[in-house]
Write a structure and sequence with these properties.
With about 500 residues, the chain is α+β, with helices and mostly antiparallel strands. It has a single domain, classed as Cytochrome p450. The protein is built from 20 helices and twelve strands. Strands 1-2-8-5-3 form a five-stranded mixed β-sheet. Bound molecules: protoporphyrin IX containing FE (HEM). Protoporphyrin IX containing FE binds next to helix 14, helix 15 and helix 20. This is Cytochrome P450.
Length: about 500
């Protein structure tokens, strides 16, 4: 039984803790005070009360950014100076010596984020980053085999056929789909997540994500240093997750060492058929790289996280946009049928056929523009720099607010309208004023997303196959008929989206 005499003391300590955290958050350093501020309390309130990203942008971020495309915001335990004008975005993304990835170890050590993400090369700089990226590069620079994605698309189609025109919750299904695709392509592993909705791999990952997304943690990740029950749960789940990852790595590593011992080399001409993990392990074994197992695990986690939520949420947004815009869905169907034929059976596009799916490519690009999965990416200033009328000292955090750039009416007329013609062959400056760095869903410069091509291939295969097989629409009472509901600001998705799929053949 809790001794109630200590209750007032506990409440007092908690209040003092929250007040000091609040005071800390509300007091920017002197040199940032002149920069327009995003209201911390309003941001927190919108975040906690599940307002949509559109509302957050319109009511909280945009007013602060309006004047010059520069504002400061308190997020992830730090003040971030954010930029939403393309030329400022370019400066931050291109000058990687001045605007460096922040050291997750220094800023986040002791938090669940740090334990889960680890120190992958996503957070590295300079020579260390170059070295790690070199090891992974061969695995990414190749043409992607569409057949493995096709196998997963067929599983998805089979699952949707069984829905019997009942509304399907899409976001979870797309997560399971992207996990299966990543499993086959990156790890040569069948997670089987589409076929089994209670799949333990998927559940484990989502349990960890649910803990990481506890709203108050996004503002004060340092709370993880206290023994709250969620922290203990997180540590346990992460240990289980690590076990799965290490098992996969060790199995492949043993196979690679055996091949090396026997002098067998893989047929690298057929690299497109090999999985990412095998290629990375081959590079490690044959270059005698000094990467530790932990480093290997951390880089793999980067692919696991980076290659899974991002593509799946993108797919969910596309399904939503095409359900709301039936005429665009019809144009996509027309193109897929022209390119893949009208036989009433599932056809997996070849890499050659993908090149002809131009309208579907435009849909994917416009979706990335209107619904970027990552709203903002951040950097740490490494040396004094002047940008957008501010002088930033080393240690200050800088953010590229992709959502803001891509919703700026100066570059995109009617930014809330979904219009794939913006990315058509005859650019119409009225629809899209193509200023460099005004389309940055995958970041830009040397740190641009490594998985961009892979993700584009995945999305093209899924959309072209789905659109030939199904017509889809929103249920009559769907909130998405009137607007959008979005979850999570950092890796955004259409919350509680349900769609009805009607088979064509
Ligand atoms: C729609 C899908 C995706 C989106 C929107 C996306 C977005 C991004 C963004 C914005 C960055 C840059 C972050 C920064 O500048 O701080 C990034 C980096 C990265 N992404 Fe993706 N990504 C996607 C899919 C993938 C996939 C499928 C993979 C791998 C399987 C992947 C692997 C990576 C890696 C390794 C980096 C770090 C590159 C470096 O720092 O050198 N991404 N991604």
């Amino acid at each position: 039984m809790l001794d109630i005499s200590i209750l007032p003391v506990c409440i007092g300590i908690l209040t003092a803790l929250l007040t000091s955290l609040g005071w800390w958050a509300l007091s920017p350093p002197a040199e940032l005070r002149h920069i327009p501020s995003v209201s911390t309390l309003k941001f927190m309130w919108y975040f906690i009360s599940n307002k949509t990203r559109e509302e957050l942008h319109r009511d909280v971020f945009e007013p602060a950014l309006k004047a010059s495309g520069v504002a400061k915001v308190w997020f992830l335990g730090a003040w971030i100076v954010m930029f939403s004008e393309p030329e400022l975005v370019k400066k931050v993304l291109v000058d990687i010596n001045t605007f460096q990835k922040y050291n997750i170890g220094e800023r986040m050590k002791g938090t669940i984020d740090y334990d889960f993400f680890g120190n992958s090369f996503f957070f590295m700089n300079g020579q260390e980053w170059r070295h790690q990226r070199q090891i992974v590069n061969p695995a990414f620079h190749r043409s992607w085999d569409t057949t493995k994605v096709g196998i997963v698309a067929k599983d998805l189609i089979e699952f949707l056929e069984k829905s019997k025109k009942e509304p399907i919750e899409v976001v979870t299904l797309m997560h399971r789909t992207a996990l299966d695709a990543l499993g086959r392509i990156a790890f040569d592993f069948d997670f089987g997540a589409i076929r089994d909705p209670t799949n333990p791999y998927y559940r484990l990952y989502m349990d960890i994500m649910d803990i990481m997304r506890i709203p108050i943690r996004r503002f004060f990740p340092q709370l993880d240093k206290f023994p709250f029950p969620y922290v203990k749960r997180g540590i346990k789940k992460m240990a289980e997750f690590d076990e799965i990852i290490y098992k996969m790595v060790n199995k492949k590593l043993k196979e690679a060492l055996k091949r090396k011992e026997l002098g067998i080399s893989l047929n690298m001409e057929d690299r497109s058929k090999l999985d990412l993990l095998t290629l990375m392990i081959e590079a490690k074994v044959h270059t005698n790289s000094d990467s530790t197992d932990k480093q290997f695990r951390d880089n793999l986690m980067l692919f696991y996280i980076g290659g899974h939520d991002t593509t799946s949420n993108s797919m969910s947004f596309i399904l939503m946009e095409l359900a709301r815009n039936q005429e665009i869905q019809e144009l996509a169907r027309k193109e897929a049928t022209e390119v893949l034929g009208d036989e009433p059976k599932d056809i997996v596009p070849t890499p050659e056929q993908l090149k002809s799916l131009k309208y579907i490519d435009q849909i994917i690009k416009e979706n990335q523009r209107k619904n970027p999965i990552m709203s903002m990416v951040s950097r740490e200033v490494a040396k004094p720099v002047e940008i957008g009328g501010c002088v930033l000292k080393p240690g200050v955090m800088a953010g590229v607010y992709m959502y803001g750039v891509q919703h700026n009416p100066k570059y995109y007329k009617d930014p809330e309208t979904f219009d794939p013609d913006r990315f058509g062959p005859n650019p119409n400056p009225d629809k899209y004023n193509r200023v460099p760095f005004s389309w940055v869903p995958f970041g830009g410069g040397a740190r641009q997303c490594m998985g961009m091509n892979f993700s584009m291939v995945e999305q093209q295969v899924f959309i072209s196959m789905l659109v030939r097989k199904f017509k889809w629409s929103l249920p009559e009472n769907s909130p998405f008929l009137r607007g959008q509901k979005t979850g999570h600001f950092e890796v955004c998705y259409p919350k509680d989206l349900e769609i009805i799929f009607e088979p064509i053949y």
